[in-house]
Write a structure and sequence with these properties.
It is a single chain. With 309 residues, the protein is mostly helical. It has one domain. The protein is built from twelve helices and no strands. Helix 2 packs across helix 10. It is globular, with a radius of gyration of 19 Å.
Length: 309
Amino acid sequence: MDILVKILYAIIAIMVATIWGLTLVAIVRKIYARVHGRFGPPLWQPFIDIIQTHARRAQVSHGLMFYLGPVFRLAGGLGTFLFIPIIYNSAVFGNFSMAGDVLLVMYFIFFGQLGMALGAGEGGHPYSPIGVARGLAQMATFELPFSLAVIAVAIQYHTLNITNVVAAQQGGILNWTLFTNPLAVIAAMLSLLGMNSHAPFSLVKAPQEIPIGPPIEMNGSFLGILQTNRGIFTAAKLVLFMNLFFGGAAHPNIFVALLIMMVKTFSIYMFSVFIGAAFPRFRPEQSFRFFLKWPTIIGVLSVIFIAYF
């Protein structure tokens, strides 16, 4: 009965995270439209898109791996989310955080991206290898400073368990990692720019350059799966950053805790959105050099700072 209750709670958490993630996606599209002088789509457009795509049939076949790409992508998003506590000390929104740590979560992040790369590689489109090469190369570069930030956090709190990291940050805003180890937070936030793939790091889809990618090659329910995962994965990444660096979401009242979670994740996400609205897209080599330079240097300094000072 305990595991059935946990599964039921996890389903509720997934629904909440999906709705919130898709809402953030809609808000971002609205912001970009306003920057460009347009009105933009309504906030409920992502939900309508998912319903439309799931109602259609796929007419093109490229092989088994092409269809497994969206499945792997969704599995990576769900795995990332299910082992992260949304609300500290909550039975409903604690997920399965007691069964995994931040390393497991990072493996699931890699799993989804690598699975999607395998699926895109079998698509048959001549430009697919370009997107795969760009995506995997950029992933390798932005994961380096993020991994260094995680190492610094693990050294600081003597644990890799996300719940314990959140517990160590309770007692006041000055206990957040943001203030106790700001170098790690800077390195992680810079790596988040690559994770979210907004400009100037939108290399895979490369808007206005390569008119292909999953929205073109995938169709029907496969595209619907990718759109659903976009909401889940967006929420999962933001909650992970909130827990590691910004004190998590903790309050005796579950509704207040959810409100805290929304405010913090929205603020974290807007950092990459504002950067994307203000800067043009980098060329691939510019993006790679950026992540291997300043964020990596700051990440190394964060590890040295917390280990020796």
